[in-house]
Amino acid sequence: MIEEQIEHALKIANNFRYERKYIVPKSMHLNELVAIVKDNSAHFREVFHERQVNNIYFDTNDFKYYFDNVDGVADRQKVRIRWYEDILGSIKNPKLEIKIKNGLVGDKWTYDLNSFTLDSSITGRDLGKLFHDSNLPRPIYEIVRSLNPTLINSYTRRYFISANQKFRITLDYEVFYRNIKTRMNNFSKMPQSDPFNVVELKYGLEDDGIANSISAQFPFRLSKNSKYVNGVNNFQSFPE
What we know:
The chain is of the alpha+beta class. The protein has a single domain (2-235), classed as Hypothetical Protein Pfu-838710-001, CATH 2.40.320.10. It contains 7 helices and 12 strands. The longest helix is centred in the N-terminal third of the chain and has 10 residues, at 2-11. The two termini are 33 Å apart. Residues 16-233 form the VTC domain. InterPro entries: CYTH-like_dom_sf (IPR033469), VTC_domain (IPR018966), VTC_sf (IPR042267).
């Protein structure tokens, strides 16, 4: 089962990486934020091209993944469908991603999914059929088949890499959230905007010592920021 695979992966941390997140108020101009990244002594340069990232997140009936994050559980996971560019309509080349976290380090498993259409007629059953028809490995299918769609988010992402190519930074801005239900969705409602942009520094376990000197140059607040938690907080109310 997937729980056994996760336990095995946590013991073999070679593929894991550190992910340090920093939240930045949207009042800071984007050009100023980019300049701070590029002025770092690690000499970051922009690579690839900026693009819109979209996700549908999934959780258990009792929102276990959400509460594990809120409660600071060290070993936790996150399940989402990810794709790029337009958020609604015909979705090409979507990926199922399972993110495994152990404290500040994490790994990501990615699986191809069939194309699908995202509009107000979509239901949890439709997404369950998508998982069923996409030829997922059996242990992976067994866990996702019981999950519910809980959130849609989107943001624009820019990518940077250090001169020694050991450190990567992603800059996420224009972060928006939409509610999604297992049935009767209405995506015509205005999405909720996040008041922060997110800078994330990513690097291998062996480079943690050097990372301190890089991050010390950022005038940003280190945070356990989770877009999933932030988005769910916009649409769900839980008893105290």
